[in-house]
Amino acid sequence: MTNNNPIGLFDSGIGGTSIWKEIHLLLPNEDSIYLADSKNAPYGQKSKEEIIHLSEKNTEFLLNKNCKIIVVACNTATTNAIKELRAKFDIPFIGIEPAIKPAATHSQTQKIGILATKGTLNSELFYKNVEKFQDIEIIEQVGFGLVDLIENGKINSPEMKQLLQSYLKPMVEQDIDYLVLGCSHYPYLIPQIKKIIPNHIKIIDSGEAVARQTKNVLNEKVGFRNENTKSTQLFYTNSNPAVLTSILKNKYTIITEDF
């Protein structure tokens, strides 16, 4: 393992590219390899055992590509599998969790909304985080169907608008002033969400915090790439690459491979 090896990232599809973008913005000199397990998306409806199995498989794929650190760019995989990943593999892992703390700390109404997958909201790690904020009313909503629509390129579809309205309006009526996006796919819905919720409700996702943590861990444990050549960004998918190509605006190399 050398400090010139790439950063590895994986998610149950294209959503984790929202995390990759923040990391690339903060660390433009670093090479990266992103794995989109779209064939098995969404992870949010799978059992804990399935999520652990898929996360281990994704990790092995990235280790075979000589990645020096792995970012689990998926809330469901982090909350259900990162403990097992850290126990099994001798490499630093960065996880992603719903950003409850900043929302709960700054809420004026003492009510925050969390839109996440079933797998995240039902996880032990999520429950432990929620327990820390007894004085805050946390209104949870499973985003059934949202990941499927995003993976199928239907971000701006009537179906998406209808689903988001049904999930968000009850939260607004309960006087939330923060909306936490607990799935790495959901930042791609922010323009849609802003059309539905009032301007005073702040939207929080975890991308910037994960990027800062990645930089910290590289600094402390692994080291930064020290070559002066332009960094390389590779994307692997095991499904139709069309949506991934669209999300990345056709700027990067996408490799379709069965894994």
Features:
259 residues, alpha/beta, 6-stranded parallel β-sheet, 4-stranded parallel β-sheet, 11 helices, 10 strands, 42% helix, 17% strand
Question: Could you write a compact summary of the structure shown?
Answer:
The protein is an alpha/beta fold and 259 residues long. It has 11 helices and 10 strands. The two termini are 23 Å apart.
Characterize the structure shown.
The protein has 259 residues and is an alpha/beta fold. 42% of the residues lie in helices and 17% in strands. The protein contains 11 helices and 10 strands. It has a 6-stranded parallel sheet, with helices on both faces. A 4-stranded parallel sheet has the order 6-5-7-8, with helices on both faces. Strand 7, helix 9 and strand 8 form a beta-alpha-beta unit. Helix 1 crosses helix 10 and helix 2 crosses helix 3. The longest helix has 17 residues. The chain starts with 6 loop residues before the first strand and ends with a strand. The model has no long low-confidence stretch (mean pLDDT 96).
